[in-house]
Design brief:
By secondary structure, the protein is mostly helical. The chain contains eight helices and no strands. α3 crosses α5, α5 packs parallel to α7 and α7 crosses α8.
């Protein structure tokens, strides 16, 4: 297993959030949106493999992720702004698909992205929603952490 620097993963998440936002508002299909994003943005210092995996996972499974998120966000998914929704989707995907990434890391990264790119206080909404979701998708890990 390759040793990936946390900064490279962090940068991959930042870029994936931006690419997912661009995909959501552009109306392009996911593959073309990713290609366009890569052509227009410098990917240096990012874990590009993780960027691609995260972007494809979220764009391919957005409807499934929204269903998983719905009971934990306290409002209809359609009412969540695009940045917050994509932060939530990314974290949900990581909870579900990347059990090698500790849930606390996923949660902290999502809160950080919300602080950097989201609306004022979006990080509080993200933190509360994902804390509930982690209890469902990572119940054993969460229970071990809290005991």
């Amino acid at each position: 297993m390759t040793d990936v620097k946390p900064a490279a993963r962090h940068r991959a998440r930042e870029l994936a959030l931006q690419a997912l936002y661009q995909w959501q508002i552009s109306g392009y299909d996911a593959t073309n949106a990713e290609a366009r994003f890569r052509a227009q943005n410098h990917m240096g210092k990012a874990d590009t493999g993780y960027f691609h995996e995260l972007y494809k996972g979220v764009s391919n499974d957005a409807a499934v992720l929204d269903e998983l998120l719905a009971p934990h966000i306290g409002r209809p998914v359609k009412d969540v702004d695009a940045v917050a929704l994509n932060v939530l989707r990314m974290a949900c995907w990581e909870f579900k698909e990347r059990v090698d990434v500790p849930y606390k890391v996923v949660l902290n990264e999502a809160v950080d992205l919300a602080k950097r790119f989201g609306a004022t206080d979006a990080h509080k909404f993200i933190n509360g929603s994902l804390d509930k979701l982690a209890g469902e998708l990572r119940s054993i890990e969460v229970a071990a952490e809290r005991s």
